[in-house]
């Protein structure tokens, strides 16, 4: 069995710096997928962010791992593209890559999308508990957590793979209700 790839706060900051997309309100993007029903409840548009500090064996999106890859898009342009089908979709999913190494622009993008009535789901390789700890010294992390509705946390672990799980690839990953979890200060699971 492979060990779960860990990223400490130093590794996070290094990845954040390498992935930086120039202006603070720009995002390094791997791609976009519309009309998804597998990336969270309801019909969704998925924004795949570029750059991930892990190399999980069996990663479904290995092309999103390079920290200097993808294309750089400003938040305003992304917002316009993501609301193109606002009448039909329930919400937007941020997947990866690792969204939390681009927390600042994604928090602003999520804030704008929520104003249009869209809910936000965020996939991350971090555990909720680690993000909560990091958020005490990094306001950007807290802003992104606070802008989300559901967090799907933990890296994909091949040995825990299960095709029957809703919206997750492996049994270690959790669906977390973000507003309740931030209020309680601990992970509260979201019931599908
Ligand atoms: S955290 Fe996700 S995107 Fe990053 S390597 Fe692991 S499975 Fe791939």
How would you describe what is shown here?
The protein is of the alpha/beta class. It has one domain: TIM Barrel. Helices cover 29% and strands 20% of the residues. It contains 6 helices and 7 strands, in the order αβββαβαβααββα. It has helices spanning 9-19, 75-82, 103-115, 128-135, 139-146, 178-184, and strands spanning 26-36, 44-49, 71-74, 91-95, 119-123, 150-153, 174-177. Strands 3-1-2-4-5-6-7 form a 7-stranded mixed sheet. Helix 4 (128-135) packs across helix 5. The relative contact order is 0.16. The mean pLDDT is 94. Residues 52, 54-56, 59, 61, 64-65, 96-98, 125, 155-156 line the site of iron/sulfur cluster (SF4).
**CATH architectural type:** Alpha-Beta Barrel
Tell me the CATH superfamily: Aldolase class I
Give the biggest sheet. Answer: 7 strands, mixed
**Number of spatially distinct domains:** 1
Can you tell me the overall shape? Answer: globular
Q: What is the subunit organization of this protein? A: single chain
Q: Which whole number gives the mean pLDDT? A: 94
Q: What does the radius of gyration come to? A: 15 Å
The CATH topology label is TIM Barrel
Write the layout of secondary structure elements.
Layout: H1 9-19, E1 26-36, E2 44-49, E3 71-74, H2 75-82, E4 91-95, H3 103-115, E5 119-123, H4 128-135, H5 139-146, E6 150-153, E7 174-177, H6 178-184
Helix pairs in contact: 2-3, 3-5, 4-5
The chain binds iron/sulfur cluster.
Iron/sulfur cluster is lined by residues 52, 54-56, 59, 61, 64-65, 96-98, 125, 155-156.
